[in-house]
Amino acid sequence: MVILLPFLQMLWAFRLLVVAVVIAKNHNLTFSISIDELLDKDLQMADLRYNGEIRTSLPAVVSSPCPLRIENFPYDVQMCNISMGSWSFDRDFVAVNSSVDVLWPQKGRIEGNSEWELLSIIMVRSDNYDTLMESWFSEVTYIVTLKRKPVYYVLVIQAPTFILCTITIFGLFTPNSNEDERLSKVDLCLNMFAAISMMLQLVSDMMPKASRLPLLGNYIIAEVFVVTAATIAAIVIQQVHHHVHTSAIRPPNWLRRLVLCDCRRRRNSVSEVSTTSSVEVPEQAIQSFTILKTSLHQVNNMTHFSYSFVFSLFIQTAILVRDTLQRMTSVSENQLLWLKILDKTDLLCLFLFQMANVVVTVVYWR
């Protein structure tokens, strides 16, 4: 009898048909959306062991809500609580326990999917007191920690936005030789601005409507502000370029020294520049040429013509031509100075806005 007892302990186990589960389906998982059982009730069995222990397994797919905190999207870490317990029977009848305290990811058993990485599952047992029923109820809470995989959002949204902003800033502030090129580059910036706005629309469609924008949305808005400021700066430079080419304005000495590092003093002839809208041949020179032409024509017909008068007209015309050439040379020099100043300004804006673009990307790229 003593010899057969261990064999009887090992062999005495019966498989019973589960007629009614102690923990009802609508009470075993709190805050669950739906429970889809994988086995029919006719196929659910329970193991009755020699010591009175009953074991049963009820495989099911449980959908449980999890509040999302999207402030750090797409670099967010979410913690979801799944509570299991009975609200029909108190802890004197049903005591919910867990065999382990922490579950770590295991390939083939517990793992994430293509978007989420499972970090850990922590089990916490607690007893809750119900004031209505005046009883204590046993409950186990599974704290599931998930980390989002940001590779898709970085490659599809964040990296293209950075590339678009970089190309836009380079296109805006590349040194230009004429006004038409500046106008065409402003048009390029507006097209890039529309593309970045489409990126922001894509992010807003992905995320639920909330009072705060996610991290990725803040990054795109910051890039929009950088491109907007760069566009305004490019338009101001374009207007200055247009103004100095339609009026002969000499650049101030302080601006020339600051931008060009030019400490040389210009000649007096260059400083005396007319501020009219354009450089034209003076009316006196045209009249003198007309008088000279008429006078020379009369030389052939008149024998008593004063050659001294013709010579004086010639000298006067030569002086006017010289002054006109000096004015035109002065205007050309001023336009060249302005072109150099605007080129240096373009390079300075290119450096500043590219630095702002990189800083914004580094701050929001985690």
UniProtKB/TrEMBL annotation:
| Alphabetically ordered keywords of this record | Membrane, Transmembrane, Transmembrane helix
Localization, per the record, is: Membrane
* Matching Pfam families: Neur_chan_LBD (PF02931)
Coiled-coil regions listed: none
The record ties this protein, via CDD domains, to: LGIC_TM_cation (cd19051)
Enumerate the InterPro entries for this protein. Neur_chan_lig-bd, Neur_chan_lig-bd_sf, Neur_channel, Neuro-gated_channel_TM_sf, Neuro_actylchol_rec, Neurotransmitter_ion_chnl_CS
Question: GO CC annotation: what is one?
Answer: membrane
Q: What is this protein called?
A: Neurotransmitter-gated ion-channel ligand-binding domain-containing protein
